[in-house]
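Recall from the previous lesson that a structure prediction takes nothing but the amino acid sequence as input. Here we apply that procedure to monodehydroascorbate reductase (NADH) from Morus notabilis. The sequence below is the only information supplied.
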Amino acid sequence: MASSASSPKNPLVQFSVFLALQVAPYERPALSKGFLLPEAPSRLPSFHTCVGANEERLTPKWYKEHGIELVLGTRVKSADIRRKTLLTVAGETISYKILVIATGARALKLEEFGVKGSNAENVCYLRNLGDASMLVDLMKSRPGGNAVVIGGGYIGMECAASLVINKINVTMVFPEEHCMARLFTPKIASYYENFYKSKGVKFIKGTVLSSFEIDSNGKVTAVILRDGSRLPADMVVVGIGIRPNTSLFEGQLTLEKGGIKVNGKMQSSNSSVYAVGDVAAFPVKLFGEIRRLEHVDSARKSARHAVAAIMEPNKMDEFDYLPFFYSRVFTLSWQFYGDNVGEVIHFGDFSGSTFGAYWVSKGHLVGSFLEGGTKDEYEAIAKATRLKPAIEDIGELERLGMGFALAISEKPPQPTVSNNGRGSDLVLEKPIYAWHATACVALAASIAAVAYWYGRRRRRW
Ligand SMILES: Cc1cc2nc3c(=O)[nH]c(=O)nc-3n(C[C@H](O)[C@H](O)[C@H](O)COP(=O)(O)OP(=O)(O)OC[C@H]3O[C@@H](n4cnc5c(N)ncnc54)[C@H](O)[C@@H]3O)c2cc1C
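The prediction returns the following tokens.
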């Protein structure tokens, strides 16, 4: 959470960052990937980063050098939006002119679904550095042991891959018919499930955990499923979703989609308060809807936009974000852009290593997925999705596959004012041809880093 008031480096603005963390902010995606590797694992300070904003390590020294007050280990326990004050657990009252809420989210606990046992010493969640360190210790202490992964979403899939790489036997349990049910089609999911199976992962789908067997030392020894089956377990990893941290602001700011509702400047229902990242529900112009996203690219870009809107309110356009999700597991790597609604067509080689899908809704391309693409190809699907071209011939889209996005990105249609934001007026009727794309770069992570970056950029003007 960041507040602003005046600074030694820039007398106009002072940034203060208040964090419940004991260490400086870091990029969480590393926790389920490089951090869990048995060899040459990522460790801080390597991911005290702000991907896209600069190449610097954002250690406490960095904050100090840039005139940003970083207050660690301090939780804000209440907020008074009318009086513009925050109260910390240490009893300190902080006044602000502008407040940026970047409180993110917390992992959902099993207890919220009526299952006890989260406190057992071998049950792990994965939201923060402490959780990831606990999982590393568990993997080291039970070589060749059995892990049960509860949940088939991002965290479950990425943890399962890391556990296997650490030579742990993995069983995944989730209620849906296939993994990554919120994003993947059954066909895409089946590719990943087969890949995981080839690495030894077992899947138990369509059921949920009902209880744990816990020994006298407080360790889980087995997981009991609702269908009565029993899975021996040396460790359990739970990835069952997150809840945005909005409680400080409930009843004071308008909430939507479980988050703090903001406008296209990331400004909440109170004009002095902005919200960014996982906690913010913002208008996604491309879809004409309010969405709350739980992804790092959205956190970086919404933070950057909020800072720009605070610094130069009259110059800023509305936030125009193209939703972007990605994951990397084993040797696999996928990216998704846009929205997974409407009719879906698949393309590419599902028996090989490069394939994808397009989603078409109301006659326009709205979403694109690609596994195993090159940099140019990922950039092409991003660009094509952003352009929302009209698709009249779905069969042709299927036939062109990757070639469609590459062609569109090479020769983008001119957006027209007359189609009320529906997308580009390019119509897919016949095959189109070219094979290269240009780049787009993601920027910024921590709100303070973005603020500093923006301040510097302004001074250069
Ligand atoms: C293990 C893991 C892997 C991930 N991998 C990917 C990935 O591959 N790709 C992807 O797109 N996304 C990924 N994500 C999601 C991504 O990390 C989040 O979208 C991103 O961290 C959101 O950033 P944020 O700043 O909004 O919130 P957070 O990163 O949650 O930060 C919130 C901060 O606010 C602090 N805070 C909360 N309440 C208070 C309070 N009352 N007082 C003071 N401080 C407070 C917290 O301590 C924390 O420091 C992953 C997440 C996890 C956990």
